[in-house]
Amino acid sequence: MPASVLRTIYSTLAPAGPKGRLSTLIFHRVLAASDPLLPDEPSAAEFEQRMRWVRQHFNVIPLDDAVERLESGTLPARSLAITFDDGYADNERIAAPILRRLGLPATFFIATGYLDGGRMFNDSIIAAVRDCRHGNLDLNELGLGLHLLDSLDQRRRAISVLLTQIKGLDPARRAEIAQSVCRQAQVTAPDDLMMTSSQVSELARHGFEIGGHTVNHPILARLNAAAARAEIEQGRRRLQEITQRPVRLFAYPNGRPDDDYTIHTTELVRQLGFAAAFTTVQGVAGRNADLFQLPRFTPWDKGNLKFGLRMARNLLNANPSLEASSLHTGAHSTRTQ
Q1: 292 and 227 in contact (C-beta within 8 Å)?
Q2: pTM of the predicted model over 0.90
Q3: Same domain, 159 and 69
Q4: Phi and psi dihedrals of 119, rounded to 5?
Q5: Which of 45, 65, 215, 304 has the highest Cβ tally under 10 A?
Q6: Count of domains in the chain?
Q7: Nearest alpha carbon to residue 200 among 276, 102, 120, 111
Q8: Which residues are CB-neighbours of 42 under 8 A, at least 6 positions away?
Q9: What residues of the chain score a pLDDT lower than 50?
Q10: Domain housing 147
């Protein structure tokens, strides 16, 4: 489909001014080469191709500017922002140079507890399953079952099942179990996947925005108010120390309403002085959107046509579920993790 036709469609669905709609893409990693165990993460070549397509069809604007213009009703037509979550080193090493070469702004939401040699639990699990030399991984002693590893599909399934089993635990317990899984698999997980403080500083120096994403990437809905505040405040404080710049934007870890954050969380983020906060709920933000529950969505399609059509479909979803006061209080919202 010609670019001019798609731009016309997008301009109709996301016009300039008060009826504007903001599309926000979310990424986690950009790999040097495709990885069959990480099928959702683009390679450098795929990412560059996709960013060239985005630049051709959308008006890519800095996220902080997008938030202000969304609130004031002055978004340009076809507005789009680019974000990354967690703080992987390949964001600075691979993604950022591509973005700079194409003149595209982006925001990086970083969990500070994993900087400078830290490792997220999911990466330990992936390493254990990837590098285990046995045909199975017996984790019955940990209460995690027996996982067959004879094929790529079995390894993918093992990763998916294990991450689902562990994800909701306390961060310290998650790390402990992940370490035990690596020991059982006789695998040493890499310690260079996450950014260093210097890399965060370098991103900021090149004009990219740095956003808060807590310290330990917990499920905030399962923390009491004091623990949630500490995670959010301490993460922001560390980022401001590194960048010597204010941190005004926040992204909820995992990012699903009620399951991962609640109305108490959004109010806490507001009280702490952030300008806006982002979820992982699909959709686009219109002028009536809750600035502390802004949606993000990246189509999973590899081909440009399907990607473009899914972007159009997403533009039809202004997501009334994320308008102000839409969250339930949630009985689990004050339970200590």
Answers
A1: no
A2: yes
A3: no
A4: -150, 130
A5: 215
A6: 2
A7: 111
A8: 27, 30, 31, 50
A9: 325, 328-337
A10: 121-185
